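TL;DR need structure tokens for one chain.
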Amino acid sequence: MAYSLRQLASTLYINRLFARTLFEVLLLALLIEGLFLSERLISILKIVIDSPVGLSSAFPLLAFSAAEVHLALPLAILIATYRIILTYRENREFIALASGGQSVLPLLRFAGALAVTALICSLLISGFAVPHAKFAFRAKVDAVRYETLRAGSTPGKFLYFPDYIVYVWPAAGRASNPVFIRQTLDEKTSRIVNASNTEIIDRSSEGTLIIGLHGVTINDFPSRDEVSTAPDGNSDEKTQNPPCDGCNPQFHTMNTNNVARSVNITNLMPTQPRGVVLDEWTTPELLGWMSALNGRVAGEAEAIEAVRRLARALLCLIAPFLAWSALTLTTRASQIFVLPLACMVVMVADIGSSQLITHFSAIGGPALASVLVAVTLGLLALLTSHIALRQNLLIFPSLGRS
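>> reply
TL;DR here they are.
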């Protein structure tokens, strides 16, 4: 009976420790989220500040950016676990457990539960939430650009499209709106259009604008990559040198007073479906467990992207045990640098694993995943052994002595 009560008390204590650590992880994640979004807000405001959609469009873009905070999840777990366990140790709560005949090692069940929870959360966020958030962010930016085109281009800014570059000069106190347009006609020819004034004649049709250009000069030039060759002829004939090095001497110029053009904005700025980049693929799609996007077949590149997500999730699995191991090294003399050093280890492991995955991608995704899992299990065994050998340092307070 006494053993059952002691076991029940230990279980309740571990559950309380788990809940408090999880709460601390959430607080740290919110803090990192706030710092990340405050930095991201600057670039988002640049997108919407000159657009006719209003500043309210910045809030959905911020919300879609929030999922990327999972990159800092291993650090949040490491710091939260270290802080909570350090507080409990210095408050002599572990001494009370030890005096009742309870070892510190059962507390590693709490670390294991936290590690598995973090692993699952990381896989779900990076595998499902982040891909859909990235696509939603891109779709919202395209919608903002679409509304900007319907309202008319903002003067003093370049607009880039698949085959066009458009620049409208700032008004600078004049009534006219000069415009510069560079159009790629084909692989050999580019068209430069300069107009002294532009105006939107009609925007009533959905997705179509009627634009008027005044004082128009149109020049068709050969592309920069086109190399001119001299025409065949008698050796006595002199070949006419082209007007510039590496270009075709033939070009066309046309001047006109007024031009009206119907512009289909949808064709000018086509909306790309989800999956044009691998960041927008969910993990089941990368692994071929679901139908591939855009008719693409999941191959080695997709498998390597899935391995990168697995590597960061495995860091979340290691982080709680690394915090316990770091705590055995924490004394009054070392408390300044133990936690920063542990954070540095996590960051180096994150960056290094990504680089190593890219370097050894030739061996294939399944082989890389097997190596990562084996290395992670080896590190977990090493950290657990280190904690077991130095568990006495987890019981007694150390910040009061050197």
